[in-house]
Specification:
By secondary structure, the chain is mainly β. Helices cover 3% and strands 50% of the residues.
Length: 314
């Protein structure tokens, strides 16, 4: 069975409202759901044997599951008013290249705050669609230092960051000029002035999250709700039907890098809670090295809209 790499993006685009997406990836070896690109591509059938009624999108009834994207939500790039990296959770490993010899130490939690401890230096690798100025907001707790220096793609930013006294978690903003940014992957190195011994580790700070947005500053929004990993997947009821779903506040883009099997289809259901039904949802697929294609765009309603999109072209 041949496989190809594609990027699947689920875009929901309404400001300040709660939207939900339930999705999975299936391969069409047995039978098949009708439809394809576009809002009318779904096929309706009975739920798979053993599944709760309506627990899965209806087009999945006659398809064999290849990958449930909800099970790998920690591998998605989640952009909500900027790319959000949630430290202290499995979601951070794809940006830190794991843990061994990266500068990143153990993960921990303090109340509702999850974090990752770091030594004298920690590197991040973050994707950027277009070169241009970036604003980075780092939420951290100073432990063994009061000084942060940032390098972007090997070049030091001229302005360092002074960390506040005390042991509370605080937000620190860093402006990254356009000339330091490239389209594609960017390396961001966080360097600190010193460490103290905490247990068996030499710790400079504990990082709770990093948020990276296009532009010169992150706009303040009292309604901003961080897309934290622990709340990203939950049971959601739409139109009287409860499903396990990717639950996000718009505008949000969840991007997955997946291997598309021969005959593969993208099966999902999308719906909105409350007044979020005024918005839209989109699915965009981009093969490796190719152009992006929009396969689905539709207004959201207070009912699940089940779809099965043909990925044969990718």
């Amino acid at each position: 069975m041949s496989k190809r790499t594609a990027v699947v993006s689920v875009w929901v685009a309404v400001a300040g409202l709660v939207l939900v997406v339930a999705c999975g990836t299936s391969s069409g070896g047995q039978g098949g759901a009708s439809g394809g690109g576009g809002a009318g591509g779904g096929a309706v059938g009975a739920p798979p044997e053993g599944a709760e009624p309506a627990a899965l999108p209806a087009p999945a009834a006659q398809l064999r599951m290849q990958q449930d994207l909800l099970d790998i939500a920690h591998l998605a790039d989640v952009d909500h008013h900027g790319l959000y990296v949630d430290f202290g959770t499995p979601a951070r490993f794809k940006y830190t290249f794991g843990q061994w010899r990266t500068g990143w130490l153990s993960d921990g939690a303090e109340g509702d705050e999850t974090f990752t401890r770091v030594g004298r230096m920690g590197r991040l690798y973050v994707p950027v669609r277009e070169a241009g100025p970036l604003a980075m907001r780092i939420r951290l707790q100073a432990v063994g230092t009061r000084r942060l220096t940032v390098y972007v793609n090997g070049q030091m930013l001229p302005e360092g960051v002074e960390l506040a006294e005390g042991n509370a978690f605080r937000d620190y903003d860093v402006a990254i000029p356009a000339e330091r940014v490239q389209a594609g992957d960017n390396q961001i190195q966080l360097s600190f002035g010193g460490t103290v011994r905490v247990g068996e580790e030499d710790v400079s700070v504990a990082v709770s999250s990093v948020r990276i947005a296009a532009g010169r500053a992150i706009a303040e929004d009292p309604a901003f709700l961080a897309p934290e990993q622990g709340a990203l997947v939950s049971q959601i009821e739409v139109g009287g039907i409860e499903r396990r779903a990717l639950s996000v506040r718009a505008p949000t883009t969840a991007t997955y890098h997946v291997q598309v099997p021969e005959g593969g289809r993208f099966v999902f259901g999308v719906g909105a809670e409350g007044s979020a039904a005024a918005g839209r949802a989109r699915v965009v697929v981009q093969p490796e090295g190719g152009a992006a294609s929009e396969l689905y765009s539709a207004a959201l309603t207070n009912r699940w809209d089940d779809q099965s999109l043909d990925l044969g072209a990718f």
